[in-house]
Design goal:
17% helix; Ferric Hydroxamate Uptake Protein, Chain A, domain 1; 321 residues; five-stranded mixed beta sheet; alpha+beta
Length: 321
């Protein structure tokens, strides 16, 4: 009987010793798990205005794709023509001028050489609908995000949105005073200069921002007749925003922009000659599938001026549900 009691006491003491020895290991494992969980990446919440109000992308019952403006800047995608590679089901058709370009969503769009035709894919910038397809093909300034809404959106965005909407949202002015200068150089003697400044004008009530752009590109097509480069551009523009908040629930935004562009369009670039006589007439230029040369004494160019005249204004009133 005494031996049995002694064995029980020994086993109890042994169990307590094992528990005390394992306690630091358990605490270390717990703290390690907490450290790992604290280092886990947190997905950034994506807010969209596809339904004319700011909502989380996961809660919007619309087929929509979103690209962040900072990502577009890092990838050097500054216009509508350069973002189609990152958005599924969005296609861009170029033409002889900016007024002949078209956007297609899910293969549906409008092809017309008339600048007076309203497209079936609407372009909206900060809540303002652009009525002509060529108005949104130039450089985009101060991008916050771009939303592509697929399918008919006429209920919220107007009659010319039967195929979808390209919704461009620019950055809102901030209370903190800030400024930047961005100078970029690329092959082909292409240069882009951006300058921006913004901040609070009346603390807590009025803030604003201004962004300017200057861009030039010699071109990538050689005119052997006069030695000039073709397919280049010269662009300059400015965009300004004022945001007035008399209280926490009401916001008025006034925006104005101006963009001027002069593009040299290549004419007479021949990729294939059907007869030897036609091929010899192209000399000193040869017809090739990757031709970057022409011989012409006629230099074509396109001048575009897009502006908000005099400005656009929007108002938001937040209500408690």
């Amino acid at each position: 009987m005494q031996n049995t009691i002694g064995e029980i006491v020994k086993r109890t003491l042994l169990a307590q010793a094992i528990s005390l020895a394992a306690l630091p290991m358990v605490q270390a494992a717990t703290s390690g798990d907490e450290a790992v969980s604290s280092q886990e990446p947190v997905l950034k919440s994506v807010t969209v205005t596809a339904t004319r109000r700011e909502e989380s992308l996961q809660k919007v019952p619309v087929a929509v794709s979103v690209i962040d403006g900072e990502q577009l800047e890092r990838d050097n995608r500054n216009g509508v023509a350069s973002i189609v590679q990152q958005i599924p089901s969005l296609n861009f058709r170029t033409g002889a001028s900016n007024k002949d370009t078209s956007l297609f969503i899910r293969g549906v769009g409008t092809i017309s050489t008339s600048p007076g035709v309203e497209p079936t894919v609407a372009t909206v910038i900060d809540g303002v609908v652009y009525g002509r397809p060529g108005q949104a093909t130039l450089d985009l300034l101060d991008l916050d995000r771009i939303e592509v809404l697929r399918g008919p959106q006429g209920t919220l965005f107007g009659k010319n949105a039967s195929a979808g909407v390209l919704n461009v949202v620019t950055k809102a002015p901030t209370e903190e005073t800030h400024g930047y200068i961005d100078q970029s150089y690329y092959s082909g003697n292409e240069s882009r200069t951006r300058f921006g400044i913004g901040g609070s004008l009346i603390p807590g009530t009025l803030k604003g921002s201004v962004t300017t752009l200057f861009g030039s590109y010699d071109g990538n097509v050689d005119n052997k007749l006069n030695g000039q480069e073709v397919n280049g551009y010269n662009r300059k523009g400015i965009r300004g925003k004022l945001e007035f908040t008399p209280n926490e629930d009401v916001t008025f935004t006034l925006a104005a922009d101006y963009m001027q562009s002069r593009d040299d369009t290549p004419n007479g670039v021949v990729s294939k000659a059907l007869t030897p006589a036609f091929a010899s007439a192209l000399a000193p230029v040869s017809a090739q599938s990757d031709s970057r040369k022409l011989s012409s004494d006629f230099r074509s160019h396109v001048d575009d001026i897009n502006k908000a005249c005099p400005a656009s204004s929007t108002g938001n009133w937040a209500t408690t549900p």
